[in-house]
Write a structure and sequence with these properties.
two-stranded parallel ribbon
Length: 307
């Protein structure tokens, strides 16, 4: 059975029998069946990694480059998560945690709070190297995890996880169901937008100019250069009131990006975001994208003790 799966679709995004079975069984957290990766899967990793190396050196934040070195990733093969964690955990306490796919929003943030990063184990097909709407192991391990080797960034993720618990605390204190849903939906939009414009698509200024630290950019061959070089991209110093009210769409290069000054600055912004939440300043953010899915909303309400 293993050889049949490995020889056909392996662990390819949208074509992975192992993942389909895990999802059918309701398993969110899984192991990485490394023997199922096909040669085509490893070839996709090789191609993705090889073409990103020059772009990382040119556009990536120095802490990311140090993270790549610290993880000792193999450019020639899909990484084993146990090897990644062997290098990662001693540095910041974080570890990559294999998942079968989509993780409801509160559970995702709760993982961050516990220094666990939900990690997709499938990899995109060679025919879709340039764009994939959902995460894959290249995005998660080569895009996100190198930043998790940095203590200041890792602590920021943990604090972001704390924000989700603050949202649950707020929801627990609202008696009226409609009002509870309205307010938690607004807060979730604000959290998603902040995460998008920082952790996924953030820019940072250093002595050499603008550099990329957001994983959505760090895992995209085309957009990492576009984010820094394209004259049509709007780049502004981050302002919290702008970020939480700014919609985003996932199916094209981002036309608007925000700049933080340092990882200490980013950490402070998350603290400010949490205080705004407590003060009610996230209760009425602008509508529009991203839409809050029923599963994401339910994950917060269930954590608050409301179904």
């Amino acid at each position: 059975m293993t050889s049949v799966q490995s020889g056909t679709s392996g662990l390819t995004t949208t074509r992975a029998p192992f993942i389909e079975q895990a999802q059918a069984n309701g398993q969110l957290y899984i192991h990485q069946p490394y023997e199922l990766y096909s040669e085509a899967n490893h070839d996709a990793w090789r191609r993705l990694y090889a073409r990103m190396e020059d772009r990382w050196r040119r556009y990536a934040n120095p802490r990311f480059l140090q993270g790549i070195d610290n993880l000792c990733l193999d450019p020639a093969a899909v990484p084993r998560l146990e090897d990644v964690n062997r290098f990662l955990s001693p540095l910041t306490g974080f570890k990559a945690k294999a998942v079968s796919g989509y993780i409801p929003s509160f559970l995702f943030f709760d993982c961050l709070r516990n220094r666990e990063f939900p990690t997709t184990i499938t990899i995109r097909d060679i025919a879709t190297l340039d764009y994939l709407p959902e995460p894959d192991i290249f995005h998660d391990i080569a895009g996100h995890v190198p930043m998790h080797t940095d203590r200041a960034f890792a602590d920021t993720l943990v604090r972001f996880g704390d924000c989700a618990h603050t949202a649950v605390e707020i929801a627990s204190g609202i008696r009226n169901e409609d009002e509870r849903i309205r307010r938690i939906t607004s807060i979730m939009k604000a959290l998603a937008r902040f995460f998008w414009f920082t952790i996924e698509f953030g820019l940072m200024r250093d002595a050499r100019g603008l550099k990329v630290y957001g994983s959505g950019l760090l895992s995209s061959y085309g957009e990492i250069a576009h984010a820094i070089d394209a004259p049509e991209v709007q780049r502004y110093p981050i302002q919290l009131e702008w970020v939480v009210n700014q919609y985003f769409e996932i199916d094209h290069y981002q036309p608007l990006l925000f700049i933080v000054e340092s990882f200490d600055h980013l950490f402070e912004l998350v603290g400010e975001l949490e205080q705004w939440m407590r003060d009610g300043r996230l209760d009425n953010v602008a509508g529009g994208e991203p839409e809050v899915s029923p599963a994401d909303l339910r994950s917060f309400l269930e954590a608050a003790g409301h179904s």
